[in-house]
Fold this sequence. Notes:
The chain is mainly α. It contains three helices and four strands, in the order ααββαββ. The strands form two sheets. The protein has a two-stranded antiparallel sheet with strand order 1-2. Strands 3-4 form a two-stranded antiparallel ribbon. A hairpin with a 6-residue loop joins β3 and β4 (114-116). The chain is elongated and about 80 Å long. It starts with a helix and ends in a 16-residue tail after the last strand.
Amino acid sequence: MSGFLAFLKRGNVVDLAVAVVIGGAFTAIVNALVKDLVTPLIAALFTKPDFSAIAFTINQSRFSIGDFINALVSFVIIAAVVYYAIVLPITHLSRHLEKPVEATTRECPECLSEIPIAAKRCKFCTAVVASG
């Protein structure tokens, strides 16, 4: 029982729970946006008053592609928001925070092999190289 309590005391569990709740709320907002605004615009292109009514029938089986297109548009919107609101800013921030890596090798001018910076002779072609 003490291990379970220690697990719950970690900040990760609470952060994950908050993320799930916020994600659910965001999904509801995006689904409403797609259903109430985007879907009617796309449905107007197909000259149907209700986008979810777009369907076709094969051998008395009805395929409702309107609901699928709703889900697809919702997914694209959510993916775009996650990319532009989370992935891009974090990538940009991590590029500014990471320290430049100092080079430990250089190229041999004769054979173009990688050799240590302090090398005076290439270990591949044995050419004498200037100290780096």
